[in-house]
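Work package 3, deliverable 3.1, input record:
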Amino acid sequence: MTRVGLYPGTFDPIHNGHLDILARAAKLVDKLVIGVAINNEKGPMFSLDERIQMTRREIEPLTRITEIEVIPYESLTIHFAREVGASTLLRGLRAVTDYDYEFQLMAMNQQLDRSIETVFLMADPHHMAVSSNLVKVIARMGGDVTPFVTAAVAADLMKKVRPV
Ligand code: ADP
């Protein structure tokens, strides 16, 4: 039996905190599906296509550890999980501030489908403070984002905020 794990998010853009969770999650399942939420409500900086391309590029080294697919989705996360055959929903937990929301989400998803288990991976203390939102704020204000994202993502951010 192939154990499939779904890691859902907006990935606007993918950062080192996401990559750390993905590297650790890759050891727990046979196949990882990264669900890129269309999420227009959040007013993403990067288009869906850009987020998918960046995510595919960044996870390339991890494909040596496990099979990984990057797929866009618009439906309820739990429905998407079922659709891709996932038995686990993987989430990263940064701090107590994430806990309330994540606990609620987990509890509701459990009622929607008991066969899919939510698994939380605690953020590496080194990446605890990293969020896509703060990375975008820093980039817009001309700050250095290289401690938080890969060099390629930093270049993508520069192109967005300072187009030539
Ligand atoms: P969302 O649209 O849910 O905010 P994100 O793209 O921000 O999605 O994050 C996707 C997942 O990665 C979530 O489970 C989130 O908690 C987790 N995550 C985000 N930043 C970090 C981080 N710095 N360390 C660990 N996990 C993180």
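The mean pLDDT is 95.
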